Amino acid sequence: MGMLNPEKVLKKYVPMTETAFYILLSLDEPRHGYGIVKHVEKITKARLLLGSGTVYGTLTKMQKDGMITVFADEERKTVYERTDIGMLILATEINRLKELHENATKYGGDIDDYQNI
């Protein structure tokens, strides 16, 4: 059935790679692989362009680990959605990123002085 122990999955995925984070984030609604690629491209203003090999490799791994599941198998397109474990992982990572942002803002000094170096 795959890895459904939340502790093991948390250890494996948090901190997340940016690719895994955006793939999981983009499953705020069921999407197929190409839909994920286009959504990530849009929300990162084309800063992050995911290759299909990367996306499908990550989706396969996440499915095996119980983070996502197949929502529907349409004609030649598999549509994925997040599971409860996937939501737990995403929430944990978002909280970690919030802490990073808070600490960067609090202790980062005047980073604006370095923006254009």
From TrEMBL:
Annotated signal sequence is: none
Domain called Transcription regulator PadR N-terminal: residue spans? 28-88
Q: Which InterPro entries match?
A: Metal_resp_DNA-bind_regulator, Tscrpt_reg_PadR_N, WH-like_DNA-bd_sf, WH_DNA-bd_sf
Entries under Pfam families matching the protein: PadR (PF03551)
Q: Which PANTHER family match?
A: PADR-FAMILY TRANSCRIPTIONAL REGULATOR
**Can you name this protein?**
PadR family transcriptional regulator
Native organism taxonomy: Bacteria, Bacillati, Bacillota, Bacilli, Bacillales
